[in-house]
Write a structure and sequence with these properties.
The protein has a single domain, classed as Orthogonal Bundle (Cytochrome Bc1 Complex, Chain D, domain 2). It is about 60% helix and about 0% strand. The chain has helices at about 1-20, 25-40, 60-70, 70-85, 95-110. The protein binds heme C.
Length: about 120
């Protein structure tokens, strides 16, 4: 039951993320929002920008994470992190619009090398 509800929610999130892709303005707004959320909530452990090392070495730089995950799978990963926490991080609900913005921001880190089709 709970899983079904979560799937529905993820589908909704993915749909919204899909919309943002076709709109350049909301796209960059989401990226800026994601960057702000990352610097507030993630930068303590992860390198969040296009260069630099993570302050916690097991926490991979976001640009490396970006290379391994699609935006949709990132969104699922972040959703799980938001519910159950990860590693030393206690569960900390991430606001829904931040989840999406974070996934978009992290994905944007790989755009300079691999342009969107
Ligand atoms: C307290 C330190 C800490 C904070 C804060 C933190 N992380 Fe992490 N994160 C880690 C560590 C450590 C790992 C890797 C552990 C491992 O792979 O064994 C990790 C792994 C991840 C992964 C999986 C990456 C992979 O290598 O596949 C994602 C995605 C992620 N973090 C996203 C985030 C996001 C988004 C935030 C901010 C909302 C965040 N993290 C904040 C410590 C942290």
């Amino acid at each position: 039951m709970r899983v079904t509800k979560m799937m529905a929610m993820l589908a909704a999130l993915a749909a919204v993320a899909g919309c943002a892709t076709s709109q350049g303005d909301s796209d960059s707004a989401a990226i800026r929002q994601g960057e702000a959320a990352a610097s507030a909530q993630c930068a303590g452990c992860h390198a969040i920008g296009p260069s630099g090392e993570s302050s916690r070495k097991e926490a991979r730089p976001f640009r490396a994470i970006a290379a391994d995950y699609s935006e949709a799978s990132l969104l699922r990963e972040l959703e799980a992190i938001s519910e159950v926490g990860h590693y030393q991080m206690p569960p900390r609900p991430i606001a829904r619009e931040d989840l999406q913005a974070l996934a978009r921001y992290i994905s944007s880190l790989r755009l300079p090398r691999r342009r969107r089709p």
